[in-house]
Amino acid sequence: MKEKNPYRRYAKETFLRFVAMICTAAISMAAVGDDVRPTGFRPPPHRIKIRRAEGAKDSTKRLKATPLPSSWDSRDHGWVTPVKDQNPWNTCWTFASCAVIETQLLRTEQGTWDLSEKNIASLHGFGWSLDNGGNFDMAAAYLLRWGGLVAERNDFYRYTQADWNANPSRTLSPALHIQNVVWVPELDGTEQTRQAMKSAVMTYGAVAVPVQWTYSSKKDCSAYYSSYYCDHAVTVIGWDDNWPASNFASTPPGNGAWLIKNSHGTSDGTAGGYWYVSYYDKSLGIYHNSVFLPATSNENYTAVYGYDKLGAVYELGDTWRDCTLEASVFTSAWNEELAAVGVWSSIDANPYTITIYTNVTRGASSPIEGGSIALTQDGTLPHAGYTTIALQDAIRIPDNSNFTVVYEQRGNAPSHLVHCKVYDDFFDCQYADANHQRGCTYIGRINASIIEWRDLIDENISFSDTDEGFTYGNPAAFCLKAYTRTTVAAKADDAPGETADGTEALAALAATNALAYAQHGETFGAFANIVGANGHTLWANWLAGLDPSNPNDDFMLSIAVTNGVPSLSWTPDLGTARTYTIWGCRDFPPTGGWSEVPKDKLSTTTNRFFKVTLENSQP
């Protein structure tokens, strides 16, 4: 049964946060007279506690075996990109997220990137307006479903509403994929969590954290908050154990401070947009803090399958602790091999077993019915958060067939993170419980060596959190993903009609049946390969000749279609300010020649092969 008022705690927290925000702003302006800058961190509806598997050491301590220094500054290592300005929008969470990713790219010697915060703020999919804020879980949902991560030059930040409206964000092929999210434990005032944060900063260079924001009349900021309210997001890039407590407007009990990078421009802060925040500030880092890790060279997958378009929202409570199995059933498209799976977990160092079944019967009472085991693989998650697990051997998946990913947790208490609708105002969008249909995801328990499965979409299943006193009965899906690679070679001589100078690029498409598309419609995809909106095509990535600006380099073209709207991207990136024409034919070689396909007719065309003519070869 649901409690009498299922939104009671949320309403209470919202009121307390509102009061804290008003009081803090009033004190700041009355005592200091500083202007109030935009913030935008919106705490997630469910507070997920990071746990460690029984007997396991903290992964953040394992990251650095050497003793931690008394101070650290990631700028000294060349890992920090320039400070940006979010003004006037409450988009701090996108700036902190991009700052962390830009740091990872510098740290791993992949160059200096300027990523588009606007694209995340516009396309996160959570159904509220630009200025309503967000959090790192929302950023993770956008990043992990490959909804994007594009360069700033392809989607510039806008500083007026009119300019933003006149330049809406488009879904573009991601410039890079995010494949792992490290959750760093919340700072609770203990030395243990402080050491964990330091280890993460020293290893990754930056950690995205929430904080309550107030401007100080002194050169650094800390209000030594007794409230847990947070309204802003920043990145921790260092620390100083000896930073004097006297530097703060509200004197904390001791020395020591975190070095943070803010997003209020270079004229803000002590030195060009950076601040120190006391170790004793009770608001900084009090939710699960995040590090987003870009794909390695071995993680360049072609397609992603999943039912959690808005990511991990809620963790099932104690009622489900004896259920150690999660399973999701997917339907393959064309010429794919399963290369990896992705899982969320609130448990650090959680032992697991992954089992892959092929040719299963979809919609059965069991997710493995009729299937056969293609692979079983054991391991231990390296950290809490999201982990992409590469399979030891890629599995060739038959075309248009059903396969199942079973994730078994072998630790002392499982972590079940699900995608579901919690609060109407937090998920005011079509993705809240859409695409959750029977036969998608299952939960299982092992009873006397017999696996008992239940379909998670069953409306009789409720999700109870004993700590917070809530019971939810909304449709839900497990946060499991599957990653595939195309088995079609992308060779220059396979692409019909290409020219050596790269001014005419070609993408070949292969047919797939309508049934496969209907089943794909229950998942999501942002591919180098993507099932076309008409259900007849699978887009492919092809070597399209030579780079016009450098004849010694290959020139790649990727085409994606989202809701019937095509988007093109080039490697090397030649920008988006170009014109192009899409041509199509039913068969190749084209017996009737190539005919132009209007961009708004891709959802209805019966063509199976396409080429793209670039009218200008430079931006």
Note the topology.
Layout: H1 8-31, E1 51-52, H2 59-63, E2 71-73, H3 92-107, H4 117-123, H5 136-144, H6 161-166, E3 178-184, H7 191-204, E4 207-211, E5 232-240, E6 257-261, E7 274-278, E8 289-294, E9 303-306, E10 314-315, E11 325-331, E12 336-345, E13 347-348, E14 351-358, E15 372-380, E16 385-397, E17 402-409, E18 417-420, E19 441-447, E20 450-455, E21 463-465, E22 470-472, E23 476-478, E24 480-486, E25 504-508, H8 514-520, E26 542-547, E27 550-562, E28 565-571, E29 580-585, E30 595-596, E31 609-614
Parallel strand pairs: 1-13
Antiparallel strand pairs: 2-5, 3-8, 3-16, 4-5, 5-6, 6-7, 9-24, 10-18, 11-17, 11-19, 12-16, 12-24, 14-15, 14-17, 18-23, 19-20, 21-22, 25-31, 26-27, 27-28, 29-30, 29-31
Overview of this protein structure:
The protein is α+β, with helices and mostly antiparallel strands. It has 3 domains: 8-43 and 67-291, Cathepsin B, Chain A; 312-484, Sandwich (Jelly Rolls); 488-614, no CATH class. The protein has helices at 8-31, 59-63, 92-107, 117-123, 136-144, 161-166, 191-204, 514-520, and strands at residues 51-52, 71-73, 178-184, 207-211, 232-240, 257-261, 274-278, 289-294, 303-306, 314-315, 325-331, 336-345, 347-348, 351-358, 372-380, 385-397, 402-409, 417-420, 441-447, 450-455, 463-465, 470-472, 476-478, 480-486, 504-508, 542-547, 550-562, 565-571, 580-585, 595-596, 609-614. The strands form 8 sheets. It has a 6-stranded antiparallel beta sheet, with helices on both faces. A hairpin with a 2-residue loop joins strand 27 and strand 28 (565-571). Helix 3 crosses helix 4 (117-123). Mean pLDDT is 74; it is low at 1-34, 425-434, 489-555 and 561-566.
